[in-house]
Specification:
The chain is of the alpha/beta class. Helix content is about 40%, strand content about 20%. The chain has 2 domains: about 1-70 and about 285-310, no CATH class; about 80-280, von Willebrand factor, type A domain (Rossmann fold, 3-Layer(aba) Sandwich), CATH 3.40.50.410.
């Protein structure tokens, strides 16, 4: 939805002053510098065509001076919600199949045999559904394996984020599991966040076995930045380091979840969906269209007509 405004609305105060001067100011016989001011001399009656043309031209010129604009209202200055970073394990073990047994959740082709999809592919589908339901939140994505990287900075553009998730592939960050690197990258993703509530959801099916940063060291930064971390152990019991994930969640004020199949994973994200809201500041990406040129051109029409009437006399 668009709305109309002015870049310099305060300049509209010039209009009554100019109109008053047009009607009351005395006309000089000869002008040394502004030789065409006689075109704006006051007429004796309000209804005279010449006076109407002068007023119309001044009104249009003043509007052009105020710079009328059309602004895209879909990009507000403030939104209610949370800043959420989704940290996804893309290690070799996430390539395992058999994680889903039923075709009963959103964004899956009915003709597709989801039992053949890997844990990583199932996770992507669940994440896209989760992203689609976070209407008032900013979200970002961190991918980790041997190392971690920010796949998407925190953004409000949900459709773009869902498309980006679709392009993620298992193994993009290596085949091992660097949980410490993932936590450190989560902190970095929140660097410019203005939200009071910062949430991270870390999903993995393995144990920390890679990276230069230990989870213990990374947690110091997590606690310093007051980031609440929800951890999810994917797969069969014992595959992930549940003790470490529970510790991460407990120390950061989050909750640990286990999800042995796709349906449980969905329920986990639904529970996370009940988090409290906080006010966040989103960057101002407002698309403005300027229309002062149109009003400048329109103001020339009554001036040209006025000049024509003067010449014909």
């Amino acid at each position: 939805m668009n709305y109309y405004s002015f870049e310099y609305p305060y300049l509209i105060v010039l209009l009554p002053l100019l109109l008053y001067c047009l009607y009351r100011c005395k006309e000089y016989a000869k002008q040394k510098y502004f030789v065409h001011l006689h075109l704006f001399k006051a007429g004796k009656g309000f209804l005279k065509l010449e006076w109407i043309l002068k007023v119309l031209s001044l009104v249009l010129l003043t509007i052009a001076l105020c710079s009328p604009i059309v602004i895209d209202k879909d990009n507000p200055y403030n939104r209610l919600g949370k800043d959420i970073v989704l940290a996804i394990d893309a290690s070799g073990s996430m390539n395992s199949s058999g994680y889903a047994g039923e075709n009963d959740f959103l964004d899956i082709d009915e003709e597709q045999d989801i039992t053949r999809l890997s844990r990583f592919e199932i996770t992507k589908l669940v994440l896209k559904d989760f992203i689609g339901r976070r209407e008032t939140d900013n979200l970002g994505v961190v991918l980790f394996g041997d190392f971690a990287f920010i796949a998407s900075p925190i953004t409000y553009e949900k459709e773009i984020l869902k498309d980006m998730v679709s392009y993620l592939t298992q193994g993009m960050a290596g085949q091992n599991t660097a949980i410490g690197e993932a936590l450190a990258m989560v902190v970095r993703a929140f660097k410019h966040s203005k939200a009071k509530t910062k949430i991270a959801v870390l999903l993995t099916d393995g144990e920390h076995n890679s990276g230069a940063i230990a989870p213990k060291d990374a947690m110091e930064y997590i606690k310093k930045e007051k980031i609440k971390v929800y951890t999810i152990a994917v797969g069969n019991k014992g595959e992930a380091d549940n003790a470490l994930l529970e510790k991460i969640a407990k120390e950061s004020g989050g909750v640990f979840f286990g999800a042995s199949n796709a349906k449980e994973l969905l329920s986990v994200y639904e529970e996370i969906d009940t988090l409290e809201t906080s006010k966040i500041k989103s960057r101002e990406y407002l698309h403005k269209e300027y229309y002062y040129q149109l009003f400048l051109l329109l103001s020339l029409l009554p001036l040209l007509l006025l000049f024509y009437l003067k010449v014909r006399r």
